[in-house]
Request: fold
Amino acid sequence: MLDQLRLCDDAESLAAYCRDWLVRLIGEHCASCDAPFTLVLSGGSTPKRLYQLLAELSPGTLDWQRVLLIWGDERNVPPDALDSNFRMVKESLLDHIDIPASNILGVPDPGGPAELAASNYEKLLRQKLTQRAGSFAPLDCVLLGMGEDVHTASLFPSTSALSETQRWVVGNHVPKLDTWRITLTAPMINAARKVVFILSGAGKQEALSKLWHAADAPDAYPAQLVRPESGELWFLVDKAAIGNVTLPANLQVSSV
Ligand code: 6PG
Reply:
């Protein structure tokens, strides 16, 4: 299947489109199998409005009992810290929906040694996710953002996590931020059935241009590592994020 791009007018219509896209995807999954839907949440600021709109869905629109929530990455801070991705999701979504606590798979005890938190997170995910043949359990949908430096999740340029080929989750020291992060690895992301970049605003134009048109240089542009093995790659974006960036020829594009 060709990579897919859906182009929305602005940030609000993008958030609404992403909401409806997820409701449809999760509904189709739940109608077709008994397994829970594994949804990996992105951190940062872009997806916050999406999470708020999901929280505002009328009861019964989305069966949260059937959804496992996973974090694609986490800052190595306690879950109540201002910059915690868990806290952002809790305030915009978790506090407003009927979801079993056992379905909320946040990083255990972040804030101490990042590698320990990463190892414990991988153990948790391995317990919770049914693993088909192969080294990486196939997640149903991974939501990603992208920074202006073309990082995604917490896969930052010139960091050790970029070369990981076996682990599902690693601790990653990010020198330019002078901080530690916990992140899904590129192979874990690429094992997913759907990987979705949600990008909004003119600040994404240069990063998209590098992602799509720069020479292959994943150490400099880590989002280039995102190539689903057998799953689908989607871009849900607004017009400001695209600007005058040339769309790759292999994208199936629809304005929505
Ligand atoms: C994080 C995210 C990170 C984010 C990008 C884009 O923990 O910050 O996982 O990868 O998605 O930095 O962030 P914005 O959506 O705020 O532009």
Observations:
- The pocket of 6-phosphogluconic acid is lined by residues 42-46, 72-73, 85, 145-147, 151-153 (CB under 6 Å).
